[in-house]
Amino acid sequence: MSAARRGALLSDLVSHTASPTNPGETHWVLTLSCPDRPGIVHAVAGVLADNGGNITESQQFGDPLTGLFFMRVQVTSAVTYDELAAALDRVAGEFEMTWSLDVAGRPVRTLVMGSTAAHCLNDLAFRQRSEKLPVEIVAVVSNHTVLEPLAEFYGIPFHHVPVTAATKAEAEARLLELVDELDVELVVLARYMQILSDDLCRRLEGRVINIHHSFLPSFKGARPYAQAHDRGVKLIGATAHYVTGDLDEGPIIEQDVERVDHTQSVDDLVALGQDVERRALARAVRWHAEHRVLLDGHRTIVFR
User: Fold this and answer.
1) Burial (0-12, 13-18, 19+ Cβ within 10 Å), 281
2) For residues 141 and 151, is the Cβ–Cβ distance under 8 A?
3) pTM of the complete model
């Protein structure tokens, strides 16, 4: 989403997202990172106070390994986005700060990609509808048509984009068109069984979340749960991470596990594995949409 489009969207939302205790105020969420040094919290709190801000939640972390400082603040204020952004820009220059400001709870425009497995797509769509998962799923994209009835059930537009070795570049170009046309802010690979090109990963850096089982690298390829069952694993799990050009090695957002034993069949492991995948992915998407995840090199800082 372009900066101009984002600014216009935030301006439109402000009148609809007033603080419940003070209708004249907007609830904002501010995230930032910068080189760690004394005075950052004082400076940020001062800017917010000078603009009538009341801090309702604040978390911070200084990473001794990278020397970076990370902060997430929720604040209510009656000033406009432009006014608050201008004030933050002034302090950002002093501290070499990268920052982001958004309306707290604003649904993030999300595109979900899947292949044939329905469990992650169904879970995200259900949570959006029933649990106020702060996303707006604007499209489902798949290289098969199996998921089309599920998308229709939830009233989500479905786009069939077949992928072969010969058409991969064309398919990725179509995906980027949809991202631009629909103002997509987040792409979720909900068991999408295609590898994204390095170029696409770079263009959507920090905006694509993937989910996969946590057997890697032990059980690669087809039927990983059958392979794990054959080896008598005692733990199965799932990892949700940002997508990079390094396959399944992007910054990890969330992981989850289940204990298993010799009494459970391959089908049992598949069912448990799908449940773990759903849980881990839903938490990762929620935390990203709530601006609780900040990148720290190849790691993440998650303010839960």
Assistant:
1) buried
2) no
3) 0.91
Is 259 in a helix, a strand, or coil? Answer: strand
Q: Parallel, antiparallel, or unpaired for β 235-242 and 208-213?
A: antiparallel
For residue 197, what is the DSSP state? P
Closest CA to 170 of 190, 200, 144: 200
Q: Give the contacts of 54 (CB within 8 A, at least 6 positions apart).
A: 25, 75, 76, 77
Instruction: Fill in the DSSP letter of residue 73.
Output: E
The active-site residue, picked from 36, 63, 248, 296, is 248
Sign of CA dihedral 63, 67, 68, 70: positive
CA distance 68 to 221: 38
Q: Does the annotation count 248 as an active-site position?
A: yes
Instruction: Read off the pLDDT of residues 247-303 as tens digits, 9 standing for 90 and up.
Output: 668 999 999 999 999 999 999 999 999 999 999 999 999 999 999 999 999 999 999
Encode 4-21: b = buried (16+ Cβ within 10 Å), e = exposed. Answer: eeeeebbeebbeebebee
Q: Which residues pair with 120 in a beta bridge?
A: none
Q: Which helix (H) or strand (E) holds 150?
A: helix 148-153
Q: What is the pLDDT of residue 221?
A: 75
Q: How far apart are CA 268 and CA 256, in angstroms?
A: 17
Question: b vs e for 252-261, b when ≥16 Cβ sit within 10 Å of the residue's Cβ?
Answer: bbbebeeebe
CA distances from 246 to 107, 108, 178, 209, 296 (A): 29, 26, 24, 13, 17
Q: Which residues are bridge partners to 140 per DSSP?
A: 112, 158
